[in-house]
Predict the structure.
Amino acid sequence: MLSRSRCAYRTLGRSLSAVSQANNVLVRQSVAGLHVCSQLVYRNARPCEFQPSANVFHIRYFKTSAVHRDEVVTVKTPAFAESVSEGDVRWEKAVGDSVNEDEVVCEIETDKTSVQVPAPAAGVIEELLVPDGGKVETGMPLFKLRKGAVPAKAAPSPAVEAPAAAPPSPPPPSAPTAMPPVPAVPPKAAQSKPVSAIKPTAPAPVPLTSAGRGENRVKMNRMRLRIAQRLKEAQTTCAMLTTFNEVDMGNIQDMRKIHKDAFLKKHNIKLGFMSAFVKAAAYALTDQPAVNAVIDDATKEIVYRDYVDISVAVSTPKGLVVPVIRNVETMNFADIEKTINALGEKARNNQIAVEDMDGGTFTISNGGVFGSMFGTPIINPPQSAILGMHGIFDRPVAINGKVEIRSMMYVALTYDHRLVDGREAVTFLRKIKAVVEDPRVLLLDM
């Protein structure tokens, strides 16, 4: 601590005792008639002497600001996309749970995707301001978080400590105040009745939820409700018609088998069949612009696009999402595979944003990954057509007058017959068939 003379210590006792609590103290002192050695003192360091000054007493000390622990903050609903106005809250944490910084506290399910709400800091959930499943809008308070707090440990149960406590001494006997118990009266014998007089009682009703026949009601989430609404709108608005064809997958399988290792080594991603169909669809949409167009019902106009943005349907535990691959006409197989892989990973991890699904001029749905053999897809409005892929199965087909076993896939094109005629739809599907069966068609531009 500060080195000083006994006289100066008596004179400055209270002031210097307060200063001694600081970490770093600079004292320059001189009292009238006394010359006192002043020092700059650091804890755990050697003092450094200064020359005394006359009739001046200065104290300068430093201290750092402490972090305000146990501060309660209110976390509000984050901003949604322009086309989303509200969502439903699904809580991941409860009151009293401890959370780390950026740990997900709840998810807000909107019409198109789910928005995760993380904790702004480590602490304990103080209060949930919205019930589970409640509706929220942008800026509404969600929950209160006590920063830096640690959940209190549960107090030991008194029942556990009871045996350890000494048994209380019995109270002193007192005069009886209660009436003596009345002896029980024996019940009367039941009057005998003839068997014919006894009416059979109705059997107990069987509960509706008997063993093995239970029911469980689950509220539909917003995404599923929105999907159902859009599909019904498509049936009501579009004049949907479906045309079919089959694709021989033998050549594309051979190409994949030959080049998959080199493709993986160069691009660090596997070569699949989806990139071939996406590229073939972009080529066919450029050749048949009506399939890439859309009807504007408000203005009664047909909107033609000079770009190709293909939506790829991805199944997630919460429902079907359709992230968009943009400007496919400028991509090669590697670019398409990388984009599909990135969007699919975001969708499965529930990190896909509304911006990833906005737009799209055409949709491809691959039911073949689930083993589908045949099906008719439904248009994804406001688009005008959708391509359905199905499973690859070995079937006998006629090749140059001979029956051969080939790997075949059925494909289906559902289109809005208000805009697309049958000739355009069939030509479009045959163009996809030609490109997938022989990718050299792309190089020759045929």
About this structure: The chain has a mean pLDDT of 77. The CA atoms of residues 175 and 181 lie 16 Å apart. The chain has nine helices and 22 strands. The radius of gyration is 40 Å.
